[in-house]
Amino acid sequence: SKYVYSFGPGASDGSAAMRNLLGGKGANLAEMASIGLPVPPGFTITTEVCTAFYDNDRAYPEGLREQVDAALAKIESEVGRRFGDKHNPLLVSVRSGARVSMPGMMDTVLNLGLNDVTVQGLAEGAGDARFAWDSYRRFIQMYGSVVLGVAHHRFEEIIENVKLDEGATEDTQLSAQDWHRVVEAYKDVVQAETGHPFPQDPHDQLWGAVGAVFGSWMNQRAITYRRLHEIPADWGTAVNVQAMVFGNMGEDCATGVCFTRDPSTGVNEFYGEYLPNAQGEDVVAGIRTPRPLSKSYAKPGEISLEEAMPQAYAELVRVRETLERHYRDMQDIEFTIQRQKLYMLQTRNGKRTAPASVRIAVEMAESGLIDQREAVTRVNPQSLDQLLHPTLDPKAKKTLLARGLPASPGAASGIVVFSADEAEMRAQKGEAVILVRIETSPEDIHGMHAARGILTTRGGMTSHAAVVARGMGRPCVAGAGGIHVDYGAKTLAAGGVVVRAGDTITLDGATGEIFTGFVPMIEPQLSGDFAKLMGWADEVRRLRVRANAETPLDAETARKFGAEGIGLSRTEHMFFDPERIGAVRQMIMAHDEAGRRAALAKLLPYQRQDFVALFRIMAGLPVTIRLLDPPLHEFLPHGEAELEEVAAALGMGVEAMRQRAAELSEANPMLGHRGCRLGISFPEIYEMQARAIFEAALEVETETGKAPVPEIMIPLVGMKRELDITRGQVERVASAVFDEAGRVLDYSIGTMIELPRAALTADTIAQSADFFSFGTNDLTQTVFGLSRDDAGKFLPKYVESGILPKDPFVSLDIEGVGGMIRIAAERGRGTKGGLKLGICGEHGGDPASIAFCEEIGLDYVSCSPYRVPVARLAAAQAAI
Ligand code: ADP
Ligand code: MG
Ligand code: MG
To answer: Does ligand 1 come within 6 angstroms of the Cβ of 26?
Structure first.
């Protein structure tokens, strides 16, 4: 079978559609070559080889070597050089490339094919010995660290020493002889560290590098990245081998990285960075400060590529247009200019901030490049979180500490930490941390993830820190050169101000500013492109989106974010209010019904007030109110001191109090005396709540002329009889209230489906229910038979080792819990065709769970207010 796919000018075996087989990089190199862009020829070893490699004890499939030899010969004939030729050597790069880009996870080896002999040939051919020896030392350095595992700093030290000897400050000041010296020292280091001389045979070098790329698929950094991004291990990586082009052959050469639009803001301007006389990762490594691509982004004194190499720049601008038209999305491009000639080395859909993704999607739709439905699919619903992030209050007093590059937007305050491990540790304790590093590397990913914000003192907008932070949605200020970081002393200093580990600073990732101390923040604006995109999403989605809200503030936030009603209002949250808890406890302590009714009468006005507020804000939208759900002991005081205090306040003995608490305590409260079981034991509780709801609804109708739509929800029903009894209670209250008022109101009574028995008998329960709401938090607990409060001890391990693909409390377990929902939905609707179905619980804001809700035809999802935009967009995407 075919393991190797060639690409090159006008003739590629592969295409962009073959991403799974060729990896993203290989597939796009093939595609770019096919559409006539200047791509140096090469070949891709497929991801299937990677999978076979790991399935067969790290052995290659039969026939691979022959196919590689043939593909290599093809490159040789295309560029007119031979691999290992002493006069005219072909050099190649060996590059990894997974299906999805994993920035910095896999290492690239450049200039492969150089040895003590071919370096002479390279020097002769280029007429430039300095360039040849510089390339050779780069090769030994990359190959030495990536393939042979020699510590990077061993090489860096050598360069530093030679520079010191020569009085040079920049790498570019070193001569051919200097680099020759570096090469000799490098070879000694390799010999000393590995016990073997540096490999001289180009074929050995090639297979060593190929093995290292496949090997790196299973290194710790890659594994961590895959875990964080939910990338399956069996996807594997491809290996790309490509003829080298040289950006380090002199001042008419360059290498660069660019985006077809600004990845930070989404503005439709060509955005990028380059370095003259440089190679490969120089731009992103932060060793020299890169220069801007276009004049419009250049600061005074900076020479843009547009000015330095106008022809190559013009060519690049044409490529930008071709690529956007072809891929119909913003591209992230890597290029090299060799003696004024442009070569394309990579393209992929560019990572962008959430604001940029919204702007780009909207502008592309408005310019007709894509349609509105497509625009809706272009924005990751989860990333909307970032747009909803606060920004710094412009009116707040601020003390500027320093400035860097605005690498990833959003504002964050936190205490300064200097290492990724510490960031993770302190974040786990609940502290907000800002990770401060000179520069970041893939080893820091876990700390970046744990941090609220990231600050680096070196590197540009395409540095590791910037790229990763944007991907994660963390605010980031990069390249703040005015700050001096001292890891040893755990301090950072700027302009005479010293900040210590543990001190608070604030970052503004949108402006690049760094402030000392905490700065107040304000809520985001939800207008402009965001509103447009959400409008398009609302046009295509079928699922309604409601919010879980009980306080007026929650309800207002929900409306602002576009909620179409309340799907779950937990009345017990209202019971904890300090003004009311006394009456709640009095009710619990009462010896008889009369005592309970007296206490409940005190609560009634409060509850009515709560519902009046909700009904007003929701102005005629449906409001689902769940009657009391948790076991009563949750409302009792904890600890001796509090117990005594409460006993005194209620005018009862501590002993009696303690005894009542003991009576109420349960072995397994989650499955105990709660939900409708309480309503059946103490009907007066639900009666009070129902009265509060109906009286509030009538009051708001009188006040506004608009009738509220109360949906009363009975929790924890497992049997139809339970619903019949509680429904009867509520209906009797309704008629009493309506009699008193002399008018009636529409309302409905439904139940939560959160027990397997309820799901399985949904056909009979539906006879008494006007709607079902799937309480997926409890349903997950009861279907799995696992308590969420105890799951922390083993669930993370289950997810890590793949027993469960995801935390089922975050993303619905489609197979089990979802299966139960599917049964209940079918059986319920079998009884009542139009039975209204929704879900409430954390899952209502999770895109994957929402897609499932769409699939089985639920009517609405309900989630926390801040997730409402996420749910609206996810519901639209699920419908497309
Ligand atoms: P990554 O996946 O980390 O981006 P790449 O495989 O893209 O790694 O390689 C990194 C850089 O190495 C490229 O951006 C490019 O500058 C340089 N490079 C790779 N292949 C070649 C080549 N054939 N000629 C010149 N430079 C190359
Ligand atoms: Mg890399
Ligand atoms: Mg790259």
So the answer is: no
d(CA 582, CA 545) in angstroms, rounded, equals: 36
Q: Between residues 644 and 461, which one has the greater pLDDT?
A: 644
Q: How far apart are CA 50 and CA 238, in angstroms?
A: 7
237, 466, 258: which is closest to 345 by C-alpha? 258
Question: Which superfamily is assigned to 4-243 in CATH?
Answer: ATP-grasp fold, A domain (3.30.1490.20)
Q: For the domain 389-522, what is the CATH code?
A: 3.50.30.10
pLDDT tens per residue, range 228-250: 788 888 899 999 999 999 999 99
Q: Give the atom of ligand 1 at the shortest distance from the alpha carbon of 242.
A: 23
Task: Provide the CATH topology of domain 254-352.
Answer: D-amino Acid Aminotransferase; Chain A, domain 1 (3.30.470)
For the cut 80, the answer to whether the pLDDT of residue 525 exceeds it is: no
242 CB within 6 A, ligand 1: yes
From its phi and psi, is residue 459 left (phi > 0), alpha (psi between -120 and 50) or beta? left
Q: Which of 32, 107, 336 to mutate to test the pocket of ligand 1 (most atoms within 8 A of CB)?
A: 336
The domain segmentation of the chain, as residue ranges, is 4-243, 254-352, 389-522, 541-573+602-630+670-879
How far, in Å, are 106, 260, 358, 486, 858 from residue 499 at the CA level? 35, 38, 37, 10, 54
The pLDDT value given to residue 416: 97
Q: How confident is residue 760, by pLDDT bands cut at 50, 70 and 90?
A: very high
802 CB-near residues (< 8 Å, 6+ apart): none
Distance of CA 872 to the CA centre of its chain: 18
- How is residue 667 written in tokens? 């072995």
Ligand 3 centroid – CA 375 distance (Å): 26
Q: What is the distance, to the nearest Å, from the Cα of residue 772 to the centroid of all Cα atoms in its chain?
A: 32
Ligand 1 pocket residue status of 281, Cβ below 6 Å: yes
- Model pLDDT for residues 561-589, shown as the tens digit of each residue: 999 999 999 988 788 777 788 899 999 98
3-state secondary structure of 304: coil
The distance from CA 579 to its chain's CA centroid, rounded to whole angstroms, is 41
For 838-866, the DSSP string reads EEESGGGG-HHHHHHHHHTT-SEEEE-GG
Residue 778 labeled ligand binder: yes
User: Span 310-339, mean pLDDT?
Assistant: 97
Per CATH, 254-352 and 389-522 having the same topology is answered no
Model confidence band, residue 103 (pLDDT cutoffs 50, 70, 90): low
Nearest ligand 1 atom, CA 334: 14
User: Using the 8-state DSSP alphabet, how is residue 525 labeled?
Assistant: P
Residue 777, marked binder:
yes
Give the model confidence (pLDDT) of 806-840 as tens digits.
889 889 999 999 999 999 999 999 999 999 999 99
Q: Which two tokens stand for residue 149?
A: 């595992």
CA distance 354 to 344: 27
CA 240 to ligand 1: nearest atom: 6
Nearest to 198 by CA among 157, 155, 156: 155
Closest CA to 434 of 499, 494, 482: 499
Residue whose CA lies nearest to ligand 1 atom number 27: 280
At position 259, the amino acid (one-letter code) is F
What top-level class would CATH report for the domain 541-573+602-630+670-879? alpha beta
81 is in an annotated binding site: no
Strand partners, 513: 403, 508
Determine whether the shortest distance from the Cβ of 237 to ligand 1 is under 6 A. no
Asked whether the CA dihedral 799, 804, 809, 814 is positive or negative, the reply is: positive
